[in-house]
Amino acid sequence: MSSPGMDEASSIQLCRVMLPDDANVMGNVHGGKILKMIEEAGSIVGTRHCNTQNGDRCIAALVRVEKTEFLSPVFIGEVVHVSAEISYTSKHSLEVQVKVIAENILTGAKKLANKAALWYVPCSLQNVDKIMEVPPIEYASAEKEEEGRKRYEAQKIERMETKARVEEVMPPRPNSERHTVGFSQSSLIHLVGPSDCTLDGFVYGGVAMKLMDEVAGIVAARHCNTNIVTASVDAINFHRKIRKGCVLTVTGRLTFVSNRSMEIEVLVDADSLVERQIEKYRAVSAFFTFISLDKENKPLNVPPLKIEGDDEQKRFEEGKSRYLQNKARRLAEKERQQ
């Protein structure tokens, strides 16, 4: 269900009750389900906005999701309200800000469950390789426009930095002892069907994100052997489009573990079954953070990660740096709110 916002072309709200199929055995709604709803809202508002001008009809293709925090758990029976609004436009891309509110319809209590920022580019339906221009939006002030421009420039730089390592091949999972990277490394295989795709035959970003969250959850569960939930997602970069008929290999591995959290790198590789001239390629990459919970949904300590080799040590140190940066950012934001 959806309802228009103040500006029908630049905002939208989706609403859905959470069912048992959306959750794990403990009743916690999968983070991947929330991510899929976030992307659906972003795709709708982005596509709607980009088709308010003359020219080729187009569809908004997801290219990046900024760091996303899962602020409160969502449970079976709660109603999730996903609101999306365009916050910045450049010549060929747009930023969509999304908020997720979970409502207990028995008590009326509401909580902020998630906030996210997504970047889209409009692709012509006549020629999917043609990037269309984005109609500009009106800003509340010059300061808001400048803040958006800075976010745009920052994400461009970060996307360029990830290109240097996205072609790294993740080796097969070895037979290793518990609490090593190899022991918990996991993969899912998924054949892209029509229901996974947009009108132009390319995979919805939300479908890829849901698969990534699932494999990251398997990695975390294998490491902890407890109930686990998604705590946050670092920037998700969509490097190349995924066509209908591709086989996706979604692989996750632990990179860093703190006392209460686990960072998991997830890579999505695509291999076309139909167009054999197209070699297997890296399509999406991201880092997910999971936490371990007891039966009362209280955080548990996470078993330490046993490091094997220089490559694992290097990834561990890089993950530790991201962990400390995110921790400092959260503390700074908390101080600003007080």
Give a nutshell description of this structure.
The protein has 338 residues and is of the alpha+beta class. It is built from 5 helices and 14 strands.
The biggest beta sheet is recorded as:
6 strands, antiparallel, barrel
Number of beta-strand segments: 14
End-to-end Cα distance, whole Å, is 36 Å
Sequence of secondary-structure elements: EEHEEEEEHHEHEEEEEEH
Overall description:
The protein has 338 residues and is of the alpha+beta class. The protein is built from five helices and 14 strands. The chain starts with a strand and ends with a helix. Mean pLDDT is 90; it is low at 1-6.
Q: Key terms for this structure?
A:
338 residues, alpha+beta, six-stranded antiparallel beta barrel, disordered N terminus, 14 strands
